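Hi W.,

Here's what went into the run:
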Amino acid sequence: MAGEGGMALLDDAARLPGEAGRDLVLKVDAIVAGVHFFADDPPADIAWKALAVNLSDLAAKGATPRGFLLALALPPDWTEDWLAAFSQGLQAGADATGCPLLGGDTVKTPGPLTISVTALGSVPAGRMPVRMAAKAGDAILVSGAIGDAALGLALRLDPDAAWAGALNGADRAHLLDRYLRPQPRLTLAPALLAHARAAMDVSDGLVGDLRKMLKASGLGGRLDLDAVPLSRAAAAAVAREPALLERAVTGGDDYEILCTVAASEVSAFRAHAAALGVPMTPIGDVVASTPAELLLSRGGAPVSLAQGSFSHF
Amino acid sequence: MAGEGGMALLDDAARLPGEAGRDLVLKVDAIVAGVHFFADDPPADIAWKALAVNLSDLAAKGATPRGFLLALALPPDWTEDWLAAFSQGLQAGADATGCPLLGGDTVKTPGPLTISVTALGSVPAGRMPVRMAAKAGDAILVSGAIGDAALGLALRLDPDAAWAGALNGADRAHLLDRYLRPQPRLTLAPALLAHARAAMDVSDGLVGDLRKMLKASGLGGRLDLDAVPLSRAAAAAVAREPALLERAVTGGDDYEILCTVAASEVSAFRAHAAALGVPMTPIGDVVASTPAELLLSRGGAPVSLAQGSFSHF
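Here's what came out:
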Protein backbone atom coordinates (compact mmCIF):
# COMPACT_ATOMS: atom_id res chain seq x y z
CA MET A 1 0.00 0.00 0.00
CA ALA A 2 1.25 3.40 -0.85
CA GLY A 3 0.47 5.10 2.43
CA GLU A 4 -1.11 8.24 1.04
CA GLY A 5 -2.84 9.63 4.10
CA GLY A 6 -3.35 13.05 5.51
CA MET A 7 0.23 13.18 6.74
CA ALA A 8 3.21 14.39 4.82
CA LEU A 9 4.94 11.03 5.06
CA LEU A 10 7.36 9.77 2.51
CA ASP A 11 5.51 8.01 -0.25
CA ASP A 12 8.06 5.32 -1.02
CA ALA A 13 10.10 2.90 0.99
CA ALA A 14 12.59 4.68 3.22
CA ARG A 15 16.34 4.42 2.74
CA LEU A 16 18.92 4.47 5.50
CA PRO A 17 22.66 4.08 4.87
CA GLY A 18 24.21 0.99 6.44
CA GLU A 19 26.81 1.50 9.14
CA ALA A 20 29.91 -0.64 9.15
CA GLY A 21 30.93 -1.85 12.58
CA ARG A 22 27.58 -1.11 14.16
CA ASP A 23 24.50 -3.20 14.86
CA LEU A 24 20.99 -2.01 14.22
CA VAL A 25 18.66 -2.11 17.22
CA LEU A 26 14.99 -2.45 16.37
CA LYS A 27 11.81 -2.25 18.38
CA VAL A 28 8.13 -2.11 17.53
CA ASP A 29 5.32 -1.15 19.90
CA ALA A 30 1.65 -0.53 19.32
CA ILE A 31 -0.55 1.64 21.48
CA VAL A 32 -4.35 1.64 21.33
CA ALA A 33 -6.78 4.35 22.44
CA GLY A 34 -8.62 3.28 25.58
CA VAL A 35 -5.96 0.69 26.37
CA HIS A 36 -2.63 2.50 26.49
CA PHE A 37 -3.79 6.11 26.47
CA PHE A 38 -6.97 8.14 26.66
CA ALA A 39 -8.59 8.90 23.32
CA ASP A 40 -9.08 12.52 24.40
CA ASP A 41 -5.46 13.06 25.40
CA PRO A 42 -3.94 15.98 23.51
CA PRO A 43 -2.88 14.61 20.10
CA ALA A 44 0.67 15.89 20.54
CA ASP A 45 0.93 13.93 23.80
CA ILE A 46 -0.37 10.77 22.13
CA ALA A 47 2.23 11.20 19.39
CA TRP A 48 4.94 11.74 21.99
CA LYS A 49 3.96 8.62 23.91
CA ALA A 50 3.87 6.46 20.77
CA LEU A 51 7.41 7.51 19.98
CA ALA A 52 8.74 7.63 23.55
CA VAL A 53 7.75 4.09 24.54
CA ASN A 54 9.84 2.75 21.67
CA LEU A 55 12.75 5.06 22.26
CA SER A 56 12.76 3.81 25.85
CA ASP A 57 13.56 0.34 24.51
CA LEU A 58 16.37 1.75 22.39
CA ALA A 59 17.65 3.64 25.43
CA ALA A 60 17.78 0.40 27.43
CA LYS A 61 19.98 -1.07 24.71
CA GLY A 62 22.40 1.83 24.78
CA ALA A 63 21.35 2.70 21.24
CA THR A 64 21.63 5.96 19.36
CA PRO A 65 18.33 6.61 17.53
CA ARG A 66 18.45 6.53 13.73
CA GLY A 67 14.79 6.98 12.86
CA PHE A 68 11.32 5.52 13.10
CA LEU A 69 8.40 4.34 11.00
CA LEU A 70 4.78 4.95 11.87
CA ALA A 71 1.63 2.98 11.09
CA LEU A 72 -1.43 5.00 11.99
CA ALA A 73 -4.93 3.51 12.00
CA LEU A 74 -7.40 6.38 12.23
CA PRO A 75 -10.89 5.91 13.68
CA PRO A 76 -14.00 7.19 11.86
CA ASP A 77 -14.10 10.43 13.88
CA TRP A 78 -10.62 11.65 12.98
CA THR A 79 -10.31 15.25 11.89
CA GLU A 80 -7.74 17.23 9.92
CA ASP A 81 -7.14 19.37 13.01
CA TRP A 82 -6.44 16.32 15.13
CA LEU A 83 -4.06 14.93 12.54
CA ALA A 84 -2.25 18.24 12.16
CA ALA A 85 -1.72 18.48 15.93
CA PHE A 86 -0.61 14.85 16.06
CA SER A 87 1.85 15.42 13.22
CA GLN A 88 3.27 18.51 14.88
CA GLY A 89 3.69 16.61 18.12
CA LEU A 90 5.38 13.78 16.31
CA GLN A 91 7.75 16.16 14.56
CA ALA A 92 8.56 17.85 17.85
CA GLY A 93 9.29 14.45 19.37
CA ALA A 94 11.48 13.49 16.45
CA ASP A 95 13.40 16.76 16.75
CA ALA A 96 13.79 16.49 20.52
CA THR A 97 15.17 12.97 20.33
CA GLY A 98 17.16 13.19 17.09
CA CYS A 99 15.03 10.39 15.66
CA PRO A 100 13.54 11.38 12.29
CA LEU A 101 10.36 9.99 10.77
CA LEU A 102 11.52 7.72 7.93
CA GLY A 103 8.19 6.56 6.55
CA GLY A 104 4.69 5.55 7.38
CA ASP A 105 1.33 4.18 6.45
CA THR A 106 -2.04 5.67 7.29
CA VAL A 107 -5.16 3.52 7.14
CA LYS A 108 -8.74 3.76 8.28
CA THR A 109 -10.12 1.59 11.05
CA PRO A 110 -13.65 1.16 12.35
CA GLY A 111 -12.01 0.63 15.74
CA PRO A 112 -10.03 2.87 18.08
CA LEU A 113 -7.02 4.94 17.13
CA THR A 114 -4.08 2.55 16.92
CA ILE A 115 -0.50 3.68 16.55
CA SER A 116 2.40 1.39 15.81
CA VAL A 117 5.92 2.76 15.86
CA THR A 118 9.04 0.90 14.77
CA ALA A 119 12.15 2.60 16.10
CA LEU A 120 15.65 2.00 14.78
CA GLY A 121 18.86 2.77 16.55
CA SER A 122 22.40 1.52 16.45
CA VAL A 123 25.15 0.42 18.81
CA PRO A 124 28.78 -0.60 18.30
CA ALA A 125 28.77 -4.13 16.86
CA GLY A 126 28.27 -6.83 19.48
CA ARG A 127 27.77 -4.37 22.31
CA MET A 128 23.99 -4.34 22.80
CA PRO A 129 23.19 -5.22 26.43
CA VAL A 130 20.53 -7.93 26.52
CA ARG A 131 18.03 -8.97 29.12
CA MET A 132 19.51 -12.39 29.70
CA ALA A 133 23.06 -11.35 30.52
CA ALA A 134 22.82 -10.84 34.29
CA LYS A 135 25.39 -12.69 36.41
CA ALA A 136 25.26 -13.78 40.04
CA GLY A 137 26.79 -11.09 42.20
CA ASP A 138 25.74 -8.25 39.91
CA ALA A 139 24.18 -5.21 41.47
CA ILE A 140 20.70 -4.29 40.25
CA LEU A 141 20.14 -0.61 39.54
CA VAL A 142 17.28 1.49 38.24
CA SER A 143 17.29 4.97 36.74
CA GLY A 144 15.33 7.98 37.94
CA ALA A 145 12.24 7.30 40.03
CA ILE A 146 9.70 4.50 40.02
CA GLY A 147 5.92 4.61 40.28
CA ASP A 148 5.19 8.15 39.16
CA ALA A 149 3.32 7.11 36.03
CA ALA A 150 1.23 4.49 37.83
CA LEU A 151 0.28 7.06 40.45
CA GLY A 152 -0.34 9.61 37.72
CA LEU A 153 -2.75 7.21 36.05
CA ALA A 154 -4.44 6.51 39.38
CA LEU A 155 -4.78 10.25 39.93
CA ARG A 156 -6.20 10.70 36.47
CA LEU A 157 -8.80 8.00 37.09
CA ASP A 158 -9.65 9.30 40.58
CA PRO A 159 -8.55 12.92 41.05
CA ASP A 160 -10.19 13.02 44.49
CA ALA A 161 -8.48 9.95 45.95
CA ALA A 162 -7.79 10.41 49.65
CA TRP A 163 -4.03 10.04 49.20
CA ALA A 164 -4.03 12.87 46.70
CA GLY A 165 -4.55 15.17 49.63
CA ALA A 166 -0.88 14.69 50.44
CA LEU A 167 0.13 16.26 47.12
CA ASN A 168 0.73 19.88 46.31
CA GLY A 169 -0.01 21.29 42.87
CA ALA A 170 3.47 20.62 41.58
CA ASP A 171 3.29 17.01 42.81
CA ARG A 172 0.01 16.42 41.00
CA ALA A 173 1.34 17.96 37.80
CA HIS A 174 4.51 15.88 38.06
CA LEU A 175 2.66 12.56 38.40
CA LEU A 176 0.16 13.34 35.64
CA ASP A 177 2.93 14.43 33.31
CA ARG A 178 4.99 11.33 33.98
CA TYR A 179 2.04 9.22 32.80
CA LEU A 180 1.24 11.42 29.84
CA ARG A 181 4.75 12.12 28.59
CA PRO A 182 7.26 9.39 29.43
CA GLN A 183 10.89 10.46 29.02
CA PRO A 184 13.09 7.85 27.38
CA ARG A 185 16.53 7.70 28.99
CA LEU A 186 18.46 8.11 25.75
CA THR A 187 21.24 10.10 27.37
CA LEU A 188 22.22 7.08 29.45
CA ALA A 189 23.48 5.12 26.41
CA PRO A 190 27.24 5.63 26.80
CA ALA A 191 27.16 4.55 30.47
CA LEU A 192 25.11 1.43 29.66
CA LEU A 193 27.45 0.46 26.83
CA ALA A 194 30.46 0.96 29.06
CA HIS A 195 29.23 -0.81 32.20
CA ALA A 196 25.89 -2.63 32.00
CA ARG A 197 25.63 -6.40 31.79
CA ALA A 198 21.85 -6.94 31.42
CA ALA A 199 19.49 -4.07 30.65
CA MET A 200 15.85 -3.49 29.80
CA ASP A 201 13.36 -0.71 30.18
CA VAL A 202 10.77 -0.74 32.95
CA SER A 203 7.44 -0.56 31.18
CA ASP A 204 5.23 -3.19 32.82
CA GLY A 205 6.19 -2.56 36.45
CA LEU A 206 9.54 -2.77 38.23
CA VAL A 207 8.92 -6.03 40.07
CA GLY A 208 7.51 -7.89 37.07
CA ASP A 209 10.14 -6.61 34.69
CA LEU A 210 12.93 -7.51 37.09
CA ARG A 211 11.45 -11.01 37.38
CA LYS A 212 11.56 -11.28 33.58
CA MET A 213 15.18 -10.20 33.48
CA LEU A 214 16.19 -12.69 36.16
CA LYS A 215 14.19 -15.48 34.54
CA ALA A 216 15.83 -14.77 31.18
CA SER A 217 19.20 -14.95 32.93
CA GLY A 218 18.26 -18.12 34.85
CA LEU A 219 19.08 -16.49 38.18
CA GLY A 220 17.44 -15.25 41.35
CA GLY A 221 17.64 -11.85 42.95
CA ARG A 222 16.94 -9.70 45.95
CA LEU A 223 15.05 -6.41 45.76
CA ASP A 224 15.10 -4.02 48.71
CA LEU A 225 11.82 -2.12 48.42
CA ASP A 226 13.12 0.56 50.77
CA ALA A 227 15.83 1.32 48.25
CA VAL A 228 13.48 1.85 45.29
CA PRO A 229 13.84 5.52 44.32
CA LEU A 230 10.66 7.57 44.60
CA SER A 231 10.02 11.12 43.50
CA ARG A 232 9.00 13.71 46.08
CA ALA A 233 5.41 13.35 44.85
CA ALA A 234 5.36 9.56 45.00
CA ALA A 235 7.04 9.58 48.41
CA ALA A 236 4.38 11.96 49.71
CA ALA A 237 1.62 9.71 48.36
CA VAL A 238 3.16 6.57 49.84
CA ALA A 239 3.69 8.33 53.18
CA ARG A 240 -0.04 9.07 53.27
CA GLU A 241 -1.11 5.65 52.03
CA PRO A 242 1.61 3.01 52.48
CA ALA A 243 -0.21 0.47 50.30
CA LEU A 244 0.58 2.66 47.30
CA LEU A 245 4.17 1.44 47.40
CA GLU A 246 2.95 -1.80 45.88
CA ARG A 247 1.24 0.07 43.08
CA ALA A 248 4.42 2.08 42.53
CA VAL A 249 6.63 -0.97 42.12
CA THR A 250 4.15 -3.05 40.11
CA GLY A 251 2.41 -0.37 38.03
CA GLY A 252 3.49 0.22 34.46
CA ASP A 253 4.70 3.05 32.27
CA ASP A 254 7.81 4.05 34.20
CA TYR A 255 10.06 3.94 31.15
CA GLU A 256 13.10 3.94 33.38
CA ILE A 257 16.13 1.71 32.80
CA LEU A 258 16.68 -1.44 34.82
CA CYS A 259 20.12 -2.98 34.58
CA THR A 260 22.67 -5.14 36.30
CA VAL A 261 26.29 -4.14 36.72
CA ALA A 262 29.24 -6.08 38.14
CA ALA A 263 29.65 -5.13 41.80
CA SER A 264 33.12 -3.80 41.07
CA GLU A 265 31.74 -1.37 38.47
CA VAL A 266 28.84 0.12 40.39
CA SER A 267 30.69 3.25 41.47
CA ALA A 268 32.09 3.94 38.03
CA PHE A 269 28.72 3.30 36.39
CA ARG A 270 26.87 5.59 38.77
CA ALA A 271 29.43 8.34 38.29
CA HIS A 272 29.24 7.98 34.51
CA ALA A 273 25.44 8.04 34.56
CA ALA A 274 25.38 11.01 36.91
CA ALA A 275 27.69 12.89 34.56
CA LEU A 276 25.10 12.21 31.84
CA GLY A 277 22.37 13.60 34.09
CA VAL A 278 20.78 10.29 35.03
CA PRO A 279 20.66 9.13 38.67
CA MET A 280 21.10 5.35 38.99
CA THR A 281 20.05 3.78 42.28
CA PRO A 282 21.17 0.34 43.52
CA ILE A 283 18.03 -1.59 44.57
CA GLY A 284 19.26 -5.15 45.01
CA ASP A 285 21.51 -7.84 43.66
CA VAL A 286 21.53 -10.95 41.50
CA VAL A 287 21.99 -14.29 43.28
CA ALA A 288 22.42 -17.89 42.19
CA SER A 289 19.40 -19.20 44.08
CA THR A 290 17.57 -22.49 43.55
CA PRO A 291 14.84 -22.15 42.54
CA ALA A 292 15.58 -18.93 40.66
CA GLU A 293 13.28 -16.37 42.23
CA LEU A 294 13.06 -12.75 43.24
CA LEU A 295 12.97 -12.12 46.98
CA LEU A 296 11.52 -8.82 48.14
CA SER A 297 12.30 -7.19 51.46
CA ARG A 298 11.12 -4.15 53.35
CA GLY A 299 12.67 -2.95 56.57
CA GLY A 300 14.99 -5.91 56.34
CA ALA A 301 12.11 -8.44 56.40
CA PRO A 302 10.85 -10.52 53.48
CA VAL A 303 7.56 -9.42 51.90
CA SER A 304 5.37 -10.62 49.07
CA LEU A 305 3.07 -8.70 46.81
CA ALA A 306 -0.60 -9.34 46.32
CA GLN A 307 -0.35 -8.90 42.58
CA GLY A 308 2.41 -9.64 40.13
CA SER A 309 3.50 -7.52 37.25
CA PHE A 310 0.99 -5.16 35.84
CA SER A 311 0.73 -6.03 32.21
CA HIS A 312 -1.00 -4.23 29.38
CA PHE A 313 -1.78 -7.56 27.82
CA MET B 1 6.18 -2.32 26.46
CA ALA B 2 7.68 -5.70 26.64
CA GLY B 3 5.48 -7.41 24.07
CA GLU B 4 4.69 -10.51 26.05
CA GLY B 5 1.84 -11.94 24.03
CA GLY B 6 0.81 -15.39 23.00
CA MET B 7 3.46 -15.48 20.31
CA ALA B 8 7.00 -16.68 20.69
CA LEU B 9 8.44 -13.31 19.74
CA LEU B 10 11.76 -12.08 20.97
CA ASP B 11 11.32 -10.31 24.27
CA ASP B 12 13.93 -7.62 23.82
CA ALA B 13 14.85 -5.20 21.10
CA ALA B 14 16.09 -6.96 17.99
CA ARG B 15 19.64 -6.71 16.75
CA LEU B 16 20.71 -6.76 13.11
CA PRO B 17 24.34 -6.37 12.00
CA GLY B 18 25.02 -3.28 9.90
CA GLU B 19 26.13 -3.80 6.31
CA ALA B 20 28.91 -1.66 4.93
CA GLY B 21 28.29 -0.45 1.39
CA ARG B 22 24.59 -1.19 1.49
CA ASP B 23 21.53 0.89 2.23
CA LEU B 24 18.67 -0.29 4.38
CA VAL B 25 15.24 -0.19 2.74
CA LEU B 26 12.33 0.16 5.15
CA LYS B 27 8.58 -0.03 4.77
CA VAL B 28 5.68 -0.17 7.19
CA ASP B 29 2.11 -1.13 6.32
CA ALA B 30 -0.91 -1.74 8.49
CA ILE B 31 -3.85 -3.92 7.54
CA VAL B 32 -7.18 -3.91 9.37
CA ALA B 33 -9.85 -6.63 9.45
CA GLY B 34 -12.89 -5.56 7.47
CA VAL B 35 -10.87 -2.95 5.57
CA HIS B 36 -7.94 -4.78 3.98
CA PHE B 37 -8.98 -8.38 4.53
CA PHE B 38 -11.90 -10.40 5.78
CA ALA B 39 -11.87 -11.16 9.51
CA ASP B 40 -12.81 -14.77 8.75
CA ASP B 41 -10.01 -15.33 6.24
CA PRO B 42 -7.81 -18.25 7.25
CA PRO B 43 -5.34 -16.88 9.83
CA ALA B 44 -2.35 -18.16 7.84
CA ASP B 45 -3.56 -16.20 4.82
CA ILE B 46 -3.99 -13.05 6.89
CA ALA B 47 -0.44 -13.48 8.17
CA TRP B 48 0.82 -14.02 4.64
CA LYS B 49 -0.90 -10.90 3.36
CA ALA B 50 0.41 -8.75 6.21
CA LEU B 51 3.94 -9.79 5.31
CA ALA B 52 3.53 -9.91 1.53
CA VAL B 53 2.20 -6.38 1.09
CA ASN B 54 5.36 -5.03 2.72
CA LEU B 55 7.71 -7.34 0.89
CA SER B 56 6.11 -6.11 -2.32
CA ASP B 57 7.42 -2.64 -1.49
CA LEU B 58 10.88 -4.05 -0.85
CA ALA B 59 10.65 -5.94 -4.15
CA ALA B 60 9.88 -2.70 -5.99
CA LYS B 61 13.06 -1.23 -4.56
CA GLY B 62 15.20 -4.14 -5.69
CA ALA B 63 15.85 -5.00 -2.05
CA THR B 64 16.93 -8.26 -0.49
CA PRO B 65 14.79 -8.91 2.62
CA ARG B 66 16.60 -8.84 5.97
CA GLY B 67 13.73 -9.28 8.38
CA PHE B 68 10.52 -7.81 9.72
CA LEU B 69 8.85 -6.63 12.91
CA LEU B 70 5.22 -7.23 13.75
CA ALA B 71 2.75 -5.26 15.84
CA LEU B 72 -0.40 -7.27 16.41
CA ALA B 73 -3.53 -5.77 17.97
CA LEU B 74 -5.84 -8.65 18.88
CA PRO B 75 -9.63 -8.17 19.15
CA PRO B 76 -11.59 -9.42 22.16
CA ASP B 77 -12.59 -12.66 20.41
CA TRP B 78 -9.07 -13.90 19.66
CA THR B 79 -8.31 -17.52 20.50
CA GLU B 80 -5.14 -19.49 21.09
CA ASP B 81 -5.98 -21.63 18.07
CA TRP B 82 -6.30 -18.59 15.87
CA LEU B 83 -3.00 -17.20 17.11
CA ALA B 84 -1.23 -20.52 16.65
CA ALA B 85 -2.43 -20.75 13.04
CA PHE B 86 -1.49 -17.13 12.43
CA SER B 87 1.97 -17.69 13.86
CA GLN B 88 2.51 -20.79 11.74
CA GLY B 89 1.44 -18.89 8.65
CA LEU B 90 3.76 -16.06 9.51
CA GLN B 91 6.66 -18.44 10.02
CA ALA B 92 5.91 -20.14 6.71
CA GLY B 93 5.87 -16.74 5.01
CA ALA B 94 9.14 -15.78 6.66
CA ASP B 95 10.73 -19.05 5.53
CA ALA B 96 9.39 -18.77 1.98
CA THR B 97 10.71 -15.25 1.53
CA GLY B 98 13.94 -15.48 3.51
CA CYS B 99 12.69 -12.68 5.77
CA PRO B 100 12.86 -13.67 9.45
CA LEU B 101 10.70 -12.27 12.23
CA LEU B 102 12.99 -10.01 14.25
CA GLY B 103 10.65 -8.84 16.97
CA GLY B 104 7.15 -7.83 17.80
CA ASP B 105 4.56 -6.46 20.12
CA THR B 106 1.16 -7.94 20.88
CA VAL B 107 -1.57 -5.79 22.42
CA LYS B 108 -5.28 -6.01 23.01
CA THR B 109 -7.75 -3.84 21.14
CA PRO B 110 -11.49 -3.42 21.57
CA GLY B 111 -11.55 -2.90 17.79
CA PRO B 112 -10.81 -5.13 14.81
CA LEU B 113 -7.69 -7.21 14.33
CA THR B 114 -4.97 -4.82 13.20
CA ILE B 115 -1.59 -5.96 11.93
CA SER B 116 1.33 -3.67 11.29
CA VAL B 117 4.45 -5.04 9.67
CA THR B 118 7.72 -3.18 9.24
CA ALA B 119 9.92 -4.88 6.66
CA LEU B 120 13.64 -4.28 6.28
CA GLY B 121 15.72 -5.05 3.25
CA SER B 122 18.93 -3.81 1.75
CA VAL B 123 20.33 -2.71 -1.58
CA PRO B 124 23.80 -1.72 -2.75
CA ALA B 125 24.43 1.81 -1.46
CA GLY B 126 22.82 4.51 -3.57
CA ARG B 127 21.11 2.06 -5.89
CA MET B 128 17.51 2.03 -4.64
CA PRO B 129 15.17 2.91 -7.54
CA VAL B 130 12.77 5.63 -6.43
CA ARG B 131 9.37 6.65 -7.64
CA MET B 132 10.42 10.07 -8.83
CA ALA B 133 13.24 9.03 -11.16
CA ALA B 134 11.32 8.52 -14.42
CA LYS B 135 12.67 10.36 -17.47
CA ALA B 136 10.92 11.44 -20.67
CA GLY B 137 11.33 8.74 -23.28
CA ASP B 138 11.41 5.90 -20.74
CA ALA B 139 9.31 2.85 -21.43
CA ILE B 140 6.74 1.96 -18.76
CA LEU B 141 6.56 -1.73 -17.86
CA VAL B 142 4.58 -3.81 -15.44
CA SER B 143 5.25 -7.29 -14.10
CA GLY B 144 2.96 -10.30 -14.27
CA ALA B 145 -0.73 -9.62 -14.76
CA ILE B 146 -3.00 -6.80 -13.59
CA GLY B 147 -6.50 -6.92 -12.15
CA ASP B 148 -6.63 -10.46 -10.81
CA ALA B 149 -6.91 -9.42 -7.18
CA ALA B 150 -9.58 -6.79 -7.86
CA LEU B 151 -11.62 -9.37 -9.77
CA GLY B 152 -10.95 -11.92 -7.06
CA LEU B 153 -12.34 -9.51 -4.47
CA ALA B 154 -15.37 -8.82 -6.71
CA LEU B 155 -15.91 -12.55 -7.03
CA ARG B 156 -15.62 -12.99 -3.31
CA LEU B 157 -18.24 -10.31 -2.68
CA ASP B 158 -20.56 -11.60 -5.42
CA PRO B 159 -19.80 -15.22 -6.33
CA ASP B 160 -22.79 -15.33 -8.66
CA ALA B 161 -21.92 -12.27 -10.73
CA ALA B 162 -22.96 -12.73 -14.37
CA TRP B 163 -19.40 -12.36 -15.62
CA ALA B 164 -18.27 -15.18 -13.38
CA GLY B 165 -20.08 -17.50 -15.78
CA ALA B 166 -17.15 -17.02 -18.15
CA LEU B 167 -14.74 -18.57 -15.63
CA ASN B 168 -13.84 -22.20 -15.19
CA GLY B 169 -12.94 -23.61 -11.78
CA ALA B 170 -9.26 -22.93 -12.18
CA ASP B 171 -9.98 -19.33 -13.20
CA ARG B 172 -12.10 -18.75 -10.11
CA ALA B 173 -9.48 -20.26 -7.86
CA HIS B 174 -6.76 -18.18 -9.53
CA LEU B 175 -8.57 -14.88 -9.00
CA LEU B 176 -9.57 -15.64 -5.42
CA ASP B 177 -6.04 -16.73 -4.58
CA ARG B 178 -4.50 -13.63 -6.08
CA TYR B 179 -6.62 -11.51 -3.72
CA LEU B 180 -5.99 -13.72 -0.72
CA ARG B 181 -2.29 -14.41 -1.17
CA PRO B 182 -0.43 -11.68 -3.05
CA GLN B 183 3.00 -12.74 -4.31
CA PRO B 184 5.71 -10.14 -3.83
CA ARG B 185 8.06 -10.02 -6.82
CA LEU B 186 11.24 -10.40 -4.79
CA THR B 187 13.00 -12.42 -7.47
CA LEU B 188 12.94 -9.39 -9.78
CA ALA B 189 15.41 -7.44 -7.62
CA PRO B 190 18.61 -7.93 -9.67
CA ALA B 191 16.90 -6.87 -12.89
CA LEU B 192 15.43 -3.75 -11.27
CA LEU B 193 18.79 -2.78 -9.79
CA ALA B 194 20.48 -3.29 -13.14
CA HIS B 195 17.98 -1.53 -15.38
CA ALA B 196 15.07 0.31 -13.73
CA ARG B 197 14.95 4.07 -13.42
CA ALA B 198 11.74 4.62 -11.40
CA ALA B 199 9.96 1.76 -9.65
CA MET B 200 7.09 1.19 -7.25
CA ASP B 201 4.70 -1.59 -6.47
CA VAL B 202 1.14 -1.57 -7.78
CA SER B 203 -1.06 -1.73 -4.71
CA ASP B 204 -3.75 0.90 -5.18
CA GLY B 205 -4.52 0.28 -8.85
CA LEU B 206 -2.33 0.46 -11.94
CA VAL B 207 -3.70 3.73 -13.32
CA GLY B 208 -3.62 5.58 -10.01
CA ASP B 209 -0.20 4.31 -9.07
CA LEU B 210 1.21 5.21 -12.48
CA ARG B 211 -0.24 8.70 -12.08
CA LYS B 212 1.56 8.98 -8.73
CA MET B 213 4.83 7.90 -10.27
CA LEU B 214 4.55 10.38 -13.13
CA LYS B 215 3.49 13.17 -10.78
CA ALA B 216 6.47 12.46 -8.52
CA SER B 217 8.70 12.63 -11.60
CA GLY B 218 7.00 15.80 -12.91
CA LEU B 219 6.24 14.16 -16.24
CA GLY B 220 3.35 12.92 -18.34
CA GLY B 221 2.81 9.52 -19.83
CA ARG B 222 0.83 7.35 -22.18
CA LEU B 223 -0.77 4.08 -21.17
CA ASP B 224 -2.06 1.68 -23.81
CA LEU B 225 -4.86 -0.19 -22.07
CA ASP B 226 -4.77 -2.89 -24.75
CA ALA B 227 -1.21 -3.67 -23.72
CA VAL B 228 -1.98 -4.18 -20.02
CA PRO B 229 -1.23 -7.84 -19.31
CA LEU B 230 -4.20 -9.90 -18.12
CA SER B 231 -4.28 -13.44 -16.85
CA ARG B 232 -6.35 -16.03 -18.70
CA ALA B 233 -9.00 -15.67 -15.99
CA ALA B 234 -9.11 -11.87 -16.10
CA ALA B 235 -9.15 -11.90 -19.90
CA ALA B 236 -12.11 -14.28 -19.85
CA ALA B 237 -13.97 -12.04 -17.42
CA VAL B 238 -13.27 -8.89 -19.43
CA ALA B 239 -14.30 -10.64 -22.66
CA ARG B 240 -17.66 -11.40 -21.04
CA GLU B 241 -18.07 -7.98 -19.46
CA PRO B 242 -15.83 -5.34 -21.10
CA ALA B 243 -16.49 -2.78 -18.34
CA LEU B 244 -14.43 -4.98 -16.02
CA LEU B 245 -11.26 -3.76 -17.71
CA GLU B 246 -11.67 -0.52 -15.83
CA ARG B 247 -11.93 -2.38 -12.57
CA ALA B 248 -8.85 -4.40 -13.50
CA VAL B 249 -6.68 -1.34 -14.12
CA THR B 250 -7.98 0.75 -11.20
CA GLY B 251 -8.63 -1.93 -8.57
CA GLY B 252 -6.08 -2.52 -5.86
CA ASP B 253 -4.00 -5.34 -4.44
CA ASP B 254 -2.07 -6.36 -7.57
CA TYR B 255 1.31 -6.23 -5.84
CA GLU B 256 3.01 -6.24 -9.20
CA ILE B 257 6.00 -4.02 -10.05
CA LEU B 258 5.58 -0.87 -12.12
CA CYS B 259 8.77 0.66 -13.45
CA THR B 260 10.29 2.81 -16.12
CA VAL B 261 13.34 1.81 -18.13
CA ALA B 262 15.34 3.74 -20.72
CA ALA B 263 14.06 2.78 -24.18
CA SER B 264 17.49 1.44 -25.08
CA GLU B 265 17.41 -0.97 -22.13
CA VAL B 266 13.95 -2.45 -22.52
CA SER B 267 15.11 -5.58 -24.31
CA ALA B 268 17.92 -6.29 -21.88
CA PHE B 269 15.65 -5.63 -18.90
CA ARG B 270 12.92 -7.91 -20.18
CA ALA B 271 15.40 -10.69 -20.91
CA HIS B 272 16.95 -10.31 -17.45
CA ALA B 273 13.52 -10.37 -15.79
CA ALA B 274 12.40 -13.35 -17.86
CA ALA B 275 15.52 -15.22 -16.79
CA LEU B 276 14.42 -14.54 -13.19
CA GLY B 277 10.98 -15.92 -13.98
CA VAL B 278 9.13 -12.62 -14.11
CA PRO B 279 7.42 -11.47 -17.32
CA MET B 280 7.67 -7.69 -17.81
CA THR B 281 5.24 -6.12 -20.29
CA PRO B 282 5.69 -2.68 -21.90
CA ILE B 283 2.43 -0.75 -21.42
CA GLY B 284 3.33 2.81 -22.38
CA ASP B 285 5.93 5.51 -22.19
CA VAL B 286 6.93 8.61 -20.28
CA VAL B 287 6.54 11.94 -22.09
CA ALA B 288 7.44 15.55 -21.31
CA SER B 289 3.88 16.86 -21.64
CA THR B 290 2.48 20.16 -20.36
CA PRO B 291 0.49 19.81 -18.22
CA ALA B 292 1.99 16.61 -16.89
CA GLU B 293 -0.78 14.04 -17.25
CA LEU B 294 -1.42 10.43 -18.04
CA LEU B 295 -3.19 9.78 -21.33
CA LEU B 296 -5.01 6.48 -21.71
CA SER B 297 -5.79 4.85 -25.02
CA ARG B 298 -7.70 1.79 -26.17
CA GLY B 299 -7.77 0.59 -29.73
CA GLY B 300 -5.59 3.54 -30.58
CA ALA B 301 -8.18 6.08 -29.35
CA PRO B 302 -8.00 8.18 -26.18
CA VAL B 303 -10.23 7.10 -23.29
CA SER B 304 -10.91 8.31 -19.77
CA LEU B 305 -11.95 6.40 -16.71
CA ALA B 306 -14.99 7.07 -14.60
CA GLN B 307 -13.08 6.64 -11.37
CA GLY B 308 -9.54 7.38 -10.44
CA SER B 309 -7.27 5.27 -8.34
CA PHE B 310 -8.85 2.90 -5.91
CA SER B 311 -7.48 3.79 -2.55
CA HIS B 312 -7.80 2.00 0.74
CA PHE B 313 -7.74 5.31 2.53
